[in-house]
Amino acid sequence: MPELTPDELLTTTRSVRKRLDMTRPVDPALVRECLEIALQAPSGSNAQRWHWLVLTDPEKRREIGALYRKSCRAYLDSPGAAGRLYANDPARSQVQARVNDSVAHLADRMGEVPVLVIPCLQLPSGDLPEGNQAGVWGSVLPAAWSYMLAARSRGLGTAWTTLHLAYEAEAARVLNLPDDVRQAALIPTAHYTGETFKPARRTPLDEVLHENGW
Which parts of the sequence belong to the Nitroreductase domain (predicted)? Predict the structure, then answer.
């Protein structure tokens, strides 16, 4: 396991797409360890309505990967695709182009990733409520991020993805989900190649910090 300080873990957990090792099996015990840690995250009213699908079956991974690829192709052709953002900023557009390329790379290989983790929420009524969506998804997103941090600390790479949700109903049929369970994300999980993870360039804090109001 990498020896990382808390700050190193938090600042070097990257979206891993091109460097996921598709050939090396992932020990199911490692995934279980990461999920045990994820269950310590907070949830609204401590309801803990999360559920976790762990896909290792080759056929199910292939089917979910096909849905992801179809959705990703539409995304890459859209005005909001990573490669089309910040086109007037030469330095930043280069970064965006690399992100775009890595997204396309993963889209063609999602079904080959050794483990696909899908965090879900079981809703009391079966329907997403109107209005405060943040309150709903805030009851699973911290746990999903905890899973990704735990994976990083154990030498596993992950990426937060949601593009397959354009075909959420089709994915639910593949997964045999009950009607009251909704998917939150798709997290590919694999050993990674290389050891060069480092903090990414971000917009300076002072450009996004607002104190006591906007």
Answer: 12-183
Tokens encoding 164: 């397959």
* Structural domain spans, the chain: 6-208
Both ends of the chain: CA-CA distance in Å? 42
What is the Cα–Cα distance from 11 to 179, expressed in whole angstroms? 37
- Segment 62-78, tens digit of pLDDT: 999 999 999 999 999 99
Q: Look up the pTM and report it.
A: 0.93
For domain 6-208, give the fold: NADH Oxidase (3.40.109)
176-204, pLDDT tens digit by residue? 999 999 999 999 999 999 878 899 889 89
3-class DSSP state of 39: coil
Specify the DSSP element, H or E, that contains 11: helix 6-12
